[in-house]
Amino acid sequence: MSRPTSDVLSVLSRHGLLPATVSSLLAVDLLAVRLDWSERASFAFLSWNLFLAWAPYLLALLARVLMLWGLDRPWTLAPLALGWLALFPNAPYLLTDFIHLRRRPVVPLWFDAALLALFAATGWMLGLLSLEIWKRWLEERWGRTAAWAFVAITSLLCGYGIYLGRVERWNSWDVLTRPERLLGAMAAHVREPLAHPSLPQVTLLFALLLPLSYAGYEALLARVRRH
Q: Is residue 122 a contact partner of residue 22, using CB atoms and an 8 Å limit?
């Protein structure tokens, strides 16, 4: 096996491709059961949200391959890092899909709760896996303090991104298709943050949840690697 191929396989193995794939397939299969059972399109949007959650993870995997090949130069990693940062909120965003949980015809509530939980857990896992790649790279170069500062800032921005998506219904591609309107909305948030009641709550909630869950993930990962 050639060195480049071996490096790619190593990245895929060490950064959770198998569990991410298995969890995603289980989620999609459960969704298919639900759609067939209800004969309605309820929750069909979950498949699209899961696809968007995979986008930052795949960008992070590509960045990791470039790092291993010694191609981690600013002009190679910067576009991937910016793309990843813009798309990263799509992964934990799946947790907010619980807003759609309510009694519906035919399918029991507990089934829908399990379905949403599986998609949310998969999205959260994809977020942590991609965050770990960038955090480890930063820690290797600038130390643990700088790496954790990156986690904290990313989590804060992610919380804000989730607010933009869930509450104000902006999409990731609006950065490219409607940049002026998006920047105008963001400027209004900076000028009058208290005029948007959900803004601080949603942003701070995810700014706390992400670092806490990542700290638990990192501790578990370290323990597994020691054994």
A: no
Give the helix ranges, DSSP H, for the chain. 3-14, 17-38, 45-68, 74-87, 109-142, 144-166, 174-177, 179-191, 198-226
Angle, helix 74-87 to helix 109-142, in steps of 10 degrees: 150
CA-to-CA distance for 31 and 193, rounded, in angstroms? 38
Phi, psi of 5 (to 5 degrees): -65, -40
Model confidence over 3-43: pLDDT tens digits? 566 667 767 678 899 999 999 999 999 999 999 999 888 89
Q: What is the pLDDT of residues 68-111, one digit of tens each?
A: 887 778 888 999 999 999 999 999 999 999 999 999 989 999 99
Judge whether 94 and 49 are in contact, CB under 8 Å: yes
23 near 54, Cβ under 8 Å? no
The residue to which tokens 């992610």 are assigned? 158
